[in-house]
Amino acid sequence: MKPIIECKNIHFHYNQNEVLKGVQFIVEKGDYVGLVGPNGSGKSTLLKIILGLVEPKQGEVKLFETPLSSFKEWHKIGYVSQKANSFNSGFPATVFEVVSMGLFGKLGLFKRLTRQHRSAILEAIDQVGLSDLAERNIGKLSGGQQQRAFIARALVSNPELLILDEPTVGVDTESVDKFYQLLGKLHQDHNLTLLMVTHDIGMMTNHVNKVACLNKKIHFHGNPSDFHANQKAILESAYGSNMNLVEHRH
Ligand SMILES: Nc1ncnc2c1ncn2[C@@H]1O[C@H](COP(=O)(O)OP(=O)(O)OP(=O)(O)O)[C@@H](O)[C@H]1O
Ligand SMILES: [Mg+2]
Question: What DSSP character marks residue 181?
Fold first, then answer.
């Protein structure tokens, strides 16, 4: 399969704090990868390096087989950052407007929306099941609904790769289930490649086809059944032996 993300020997530190230590990581076309690791293990930092938002001290990133420094097809990538949904209730934008922001990269800020843009926006809103709330103020949605609005924003440019940083934080169990169904559908129907950071190891491994476990370096990268077969050793190596894991496998 074609590599979509390639990280070779990535090193990164903030001052004295070593965050990534020789990370090797590949995401192939059609993968649905769950990236886990303890707090502060470098997950968000690795995503930011992949997205060119933070520069590695050493190592190489390629996106769609192009070195990051010359990569220009950012419309192929959707990104929902950690805490994307921490809006206060007064934020003056509707769901439709927030989702339309996902097109600004293509449009330039002050261009008018064409009919095609509008229908792409409405389709993305429909995909995440928020059609009834399209004109509602984003701050007046629940946390889980806001999360879906941000996914719609990332989907509106029709990306090939969707990167999500802890999308299910603050979302109730039933909604998390629906959320995984939504991602599964996007993965299958739209052949979307997915990279998702989560702490929800039990749930996630029921849905993804690859699990990666990070703590400064990659401690495991493989399919969920190999992960389960060696879970104790992998988690001890990445989280330390005091880790208390609650698993909810269905
Ligand atoms: N802007 C920053 N300046 C200095 N240190 C930072 C900065 N951002 C993150 N760090 C530190 O880098 C390390 C890795 O942070 P990162 O956000 O990548 O972890 P994470 O795996 O995403 O954690 P979490 O599960 O809590 O989101 C942590 O020790 C963190 O304190
Ligand atoms: Mg993080």
Answer: H
116 CB within 6 A, ligand 1 = no
Q: Is the CB of 42 under 6 A from ligand 1?
A: yes
The answer, yes or no, to whether any atom of ligand 1 lies below 6 A from the CB of 15, is no
Domain 3-239, CATH: 3.40.50.300
The contacts found for 46-54 with CB under 8 angstroms, 24 or more apart, are 46/7, 46/10, 46/20, 46/214, 47/79, 47/163, 47/165, 47/195, 47/197, 49/7, 49/10, 49/12, 49/20, 50/5, 50/7, 50/163, 50/195, 51/77, 51/79, 51/163, 54/12
- Residue-range domain boundaries for the chain: 3-239
pTM above 0.85, yes or no: yes
Mutation probe of ligand 1 site: the residue of 18, 23, 39, 197 with most atoms within 8 A of C-beta: 39
**C-alpha dist (Å) from residue 180 to 86, 128, 131, 214:** 21, 11, 19, 22
pLDDT tens string, the chain, 250 residues long: the values are: 899 999 999 999 999 999 999 999 999 999 999 999 999 999 999 999 999 999 999 999 999 999 999 999 988 999 988 876 666 667 788 999 999 988 876 555 556 788 999 999 999 999 888 999 999 999 898 878 888 899 899 999 889 999 999 887 767 777 788 888 889 998 998 889 999 999 989 889 999 999 999 999 999 999 999 999 999 999 999 988 655 554 444 4
